Amino acid sequence: MPKPRRFQTLAAALVAAAAAVALTGCSGWEYTENICNSGEYPVLQVNGTGSACTPDDEEPADGYARYPEGKVPEQVDDKWDVYWRTHTLDEKGDIVPAS
């Protein structure tokens, strides 16, 4: 018994869609993860590479500082997130290489 035409059309469409995804590498579906949730800002561990998120209406906890203006990571693996993996702030707020 021959297969219904709708089934063949649906199957062809699914194969074409899968091929399109494979050929484009899903480039239009890139996912980026924010460093902090809404209502929070990132802070850096002084003399270390640790980080945390602090509520917008609070100051950083002891041992943490705000990132220098213009050098704040916003998404995981963005330019500043990568930079701060090898740099930190000292007690005076100067940027120094992380040990």
UniProtKB/TrEMBL annotation:
The stretch of residues making up the signal peptide is 1-22
Query: Which UniProt key words apply to this protein?
Result: Signal
User: InterPro entries recorded for this chain?
Assistant: SCO0607-like
- Protein name per UniProt: Lipoprotein
Q: What is the source species?
A: Streptomyces cinnabarinus
